[in-house]
Design a protein that fits this description.
By secondary structure, the protein is of the alpha/beta class. It is built from 8 helices and 10 strands. Helices cover 35% and strands 26% of the residues.
Length: 254
């Protein structure tokens, strides 16, 4: 498998000369195409900062980020905007749907500035809707659907333009267990059958058990990583054990 994302000595420092906070401290890792990778760690470990820097929402103080061998740390202005639109898909905890648009209209927002032919847009809507189980609600508005359906709509918006990397930030945090499981099954299917590359930030061991690999960070540094053997139940147990070793107990990461 080829590498799609690579960080080299990634460091992020906030504050002034006499009052600084090192949120990321020489973080190095690689993600291959088609991987489903999780990031976990205690509160304040640097998970959100890492995701923000990778997504180019924030910039590293030092270090480099490569996306398919391109140094995206150096991108500015329109180049940076074009990179995000073409290569990244975002799934947030709070959905970020527009209430005045239907499910279908929310989903096709990433395509609205691409000059894509109407027939191709319709084809992608149909395929994405079927994949995520939301075909029957395409013409409804966000206030008419459940939280789980909203999050699957958000997932549809994230994948409809076929990005190279899907970034999911606590996507199950606002969902009940049934809706969370439905979303995670959809993400797993995207990864397994459609070879989507997914980077998931989560504090939930159940959500993490769907990943093929989990990277743990503590105090801004890479602490450890574990790999799934394909058995989600046993991997869940490994996640729990690692969280206990990482912070003294599962509640320390919530």
């Amino acid at each position: 498998m080829s590498t799609i994302l690579k960080t080299k000595n990634l460091t992020k420092i906030y504050g002034t000369k006499f009052n600084t906070l090192t949120a990321l401290d020489n973080v190095n890792f690689e993600i291959n195409k088609g991987e489903f990778v999780g990031i976990m760690g205690p509160s304040g470990a640097g998970k959100s900062t890492l995701l923000n820097v990778i997504s180019t929402i924030d910039t590293p103080t030092t270090g480099t980020i490569y996306f398919e061998k391109e140094n995206i740390s150096q991108l500015k202005g329109n180049q940076l905007s074009d990179f995000r639109k073409q290569n990244l898909g975002f799934i947030f905890q709070d959905f970020n749907l527009l209430d005045t648009l239907t499910v279908k209209e929310n989903m096709i927002l990433p395509l609205s500035v691409s000059n894509m032919p109407y027939k191709e847009i319709e084809k992608r809507v149909a395929k994405t809707g079927l994949l995520l189980g939301i075909t029957d609600i395409l013409n409804k508005y966000p206030f008419e659907i459940s939280g789980g359906q909203k999050q699957r709509t958000a997932a549809g918006r994230a994948i409809i333009h076929q990005p190279g990397l899907i970034l999911a930030d606590e996507p199950t945090g606002a969902l009940d267990s049934k809706s969370a499981t439905e979303l995670l099954n959809c993400l797993s299917d995207l990864n397994t059958h459609h070879h989507a590359t997914i980077l998931l930030v989560t504090h939930d061991p159940f959500a993490a058990s769907y990943c093929s690999r989990i990277m743990f960070i503590k105090d801004g540094r890479m602490y450890s990583e574990i790999y799934s053997n394909g058995n989600r139940k046993s991997f869940y147990t490994k996640v729990i054990e690692m969280l206990a070793a990482l912070g003294g107990g599962i509640h320390d990461v919530l």
